[in-house]
Write a structure and sequence with these properties.
With 345 residues, this protein is of the alpha+beta class. Helix content is 17%, strand content 36%. It folds into 2 domains: 250 residues, Acetamidase/Formamidase-like domains (Jelly Rolls), CATH 2.60.120; 66 residues, Roll (Endonuclease I-creI). The protein contains 5 helices and 22 strands. Strands 1, 2, 6, 8, 16, 18, 19, 20, 21 and 22 form a 10-stranded mixed sheet that branches. Strands 3, 5, 7, 13, 15 and 17 form a 6-stranded mixed sheet that branches. A hairpin with a 4-residue loop joins β10 and β11. α4 packs across α5. It is globular, with a radius of gyration of 20 Å.
């Protein structure tokens, strides 16, 4: 007999993707996945990677992620040695298989039943701060205004968990908005060992600040088991992430995984409690915008039964298009459309 919670998820998925089969199981388990030298992928998503955890559709995973910075750099910027996570020290010392990107990602997680052509639904149940600080940094060769800042700087930003603010500077406080900058599955096998920096069809380093607790991410599956990885924790970020980093920190997330069979979804999508989100990624910002708008139109035609003309018009009059990030080689654009537009009287 289907659990009530799974029935709710099935109904939600049907609303988003049409009538599909949901692979689940009774008595879903909760797994714990720490970040260790044995459980991280440094700088890549890869369809040939060895999974560090196997789960079934419907399971939850409490997963640790680490900020991507060397212990030495953190201490040089002002973090006292005892506040540098031992797991980060262990990984920097023991993990030599790195690249081509720089992110420390926890995973990959193999989800049983996930096959190419399916969709992996990732429900972000909870995100907790793991440490009381974040950093922001820039360096020459990266960031939007790199020629105007031809040097490197790192700033440590204290995080107040009780008040849920970041103390950026005297008189400047930023409300915390924790999310994972990178959440993705393995790309198609032909991509090989794919750089963790530029987001694309597998998701990855999307840096989308809307993907907070309570949000659901839908990723197209490209290889058996999906091979999900997560990392690049942010305590908060502005749209654009213009200097190449957000408030980089370590996070612990509680994620629920559901496999939807044979959806033929081609591109990442998401939804918040209030909005549908379509995304586009490309080195050319204009092309990224084209992709995001086209993805939202395709969604409206397939799932809301609008004509293509009306879908295009609706995005123009009610959709909000924003630059997700502009610094990860493949720029990101997303379109948000309020769910209340479809509420029936």
């Amino acid at each position: 007999m289907m659990h009530a919670a799974l029935l709710v998820r099935t109904t939600l998925a049907a609303a988003l993707f049409g009538v599909i089969t949901v692979a689940g199981h009774a008595g879903a388990e909760t797994h714990r996945l720490p970040a260790t030298p044995q459980t991280v992928a440094w700088g890549n998503y890869d369809a040939s990677a060895r999974p560090v955890l196997r789960i079934r559709s419907g399971d939850l995973v409490v997963v640790d992620t680490l900020l991507t910075s060397s212990p030495t750099a953190l201490e040089r910027a002002g973090v006292v040695p005892q506040e540098v996570e031992q797991s980060l020290r262990d990984i920097f010392q023991a993990v030599t298989d790195r690249g081509p990107g720089g992110h420390i990602l926890t995973g990959p997680i193999f989800v049983e039943g996930a096959e190419p052509g399916d969709t992996l639904e990732v429900r972000i149940r909870k995100i907790d701060l793991a440490i009381p600080y974040a950093y922001n940094g820039f360096r020459y060769g990266a960031g939007l205004l790199t020629d105007e800042f031809p040097y490197a700087r790192m700033k440590i930003i204290p995080l107040d968990r009780d008040r849920q603010v970041a103390n950026f500077a005297p008189g400047i406080q930023i409300k915390l908005h924790p999310f994972f900058g990178s959440m993705g599955v393995a790309p198609p096998p032909a991509f090989g060992r794919y750089d963790s920096t530029p987001p694309t069809v597998h998701g990855g380093n999307m840096d989308n600040k809307e993907l907070v607790a309570g949000t659901t991410l839908y990723l197209p599956v490209h290889t058996s088991g999906a091979l999900f990885e997560v990392g690049d924790g942010h305590a908060g970020q502005g749209n654009g992430e213009v200097d190449v980093t957000a408030m980089e920190t370590s996070l612990t997330g509680t994620l629920e995984f559901i496999v939807h069979k044979n959806t033929k979804q081609a591109y990442p999508r998401a939804e918040t409690p209030t909005h549908f989100i379509a995304m586009g990624f490309d080195d050319d910002l204009s092309i990224a915008a084209h992709k995001a708008v086209r993805e939202m139109i395709d969604f409206l035609v397939a799932e809301k039964r609008l004509s293509r003309d009306d879908a295009y018009m609706l995005v123009s009059v009610a959709g909000d298009l924003a630059i997700t990030q502009i610094v990860d080689r493949n720029k990101g654009v997303h379109v948000m459309l309020a769910k209340e537009l479809f509420a029936r009287p």
